[in-house]
C-alpha cells in the first residue's frame, strides 16, 4: 500500500509558507493526519497564486448540500463527457509511471500547456500528507473553469453564496474568494 502513496505535488503547497496547507478554510480542522480527507483548489494568474484553499470533507459535503440537483448533474455530465480526453492524455494511479506533476503540466480538458496559460486552476484530493487515489489531481485553464462555473444554476450560485455568508468565523476576504472562485471539485 505504501508504495502507492504519492506526496502532495509542490504546486499544491501553500504559497505563503511553501509547506503543505494545514487547515480547512471553513472549520480550521487540521488536515495532515493520516485518514483525514480533503481537497485543495488553487487559482493562478500570470503565475501568481490568486487563491488557494483546502476544504475538509465535512465542509465539502455541507457545501454540496446547498447545490441544486440540476447543477450537480450538469457538472457530473460535463466531467463524464470530457473524461475521455483526460484519460487519453493522462495515466492514472494504476500505471507504473504515474506522475502527478505531469497531470499538472497542461489543461486536462484542452491540453494547452501550463506555460501557455495566463490563468489556470488546479484541484486535488488528498489524505493527510499524500494524494488520495480516489481522484487524480488536475489542472484546467481559466476558460474551462469559467465554462464549468456556467453550468451552475442561478439558484445554486445564490445558495452557495448564502452558505458562505452564513458560515460563522469565515473571514470576509475568504467569503469573496469562495464566491468568485467556486469550488470545482465538490
Ligand atoms: Zn472543514
Keywords:
single chain; 186 residues; alpha+beta; 18% strand; binds zinc ion
Written overview of the protein:
Helix content is 34%, strand content 18%. The chain is of the alpha+beta class and 186 residues long. The chain has one domain. Strands 1, 2, 3, 4 and 5 form a 5-stranded antiparallel β-sheet that branches. The protein starts with 36 loop residues before the first strand and ends in a 6-residue tail after the last helix. The structure holds zinc ion. Residues 24, 26-27, 29, 56, 58-59 line the site of zinc ion.
DSSP helix fraction: 25-40%
Helical run tally: 6
Mean pLDDT: 81
Tell me about the largest β-sheet: 5 strands, antiparallel
The domain tally reads: 1
What is shown here, in short?
The protein is α+β, with helices and mostly antiparallel strands. The chain is 34% helix and 18% strand. It has 6 helices and 5 strands.
Any chance you could write out the topology, listing elements then pairs?
Elements: E1 37-45, E2 48-56, H1 57-64, H2 69-89, H3 100-103, E3 119-127, E4 130-131, E5 138-141, H4 142-149, H5 154-166, H6 172-180
Antiparallel strand pairs: 1-2, 1-3, 3-4, 3-5
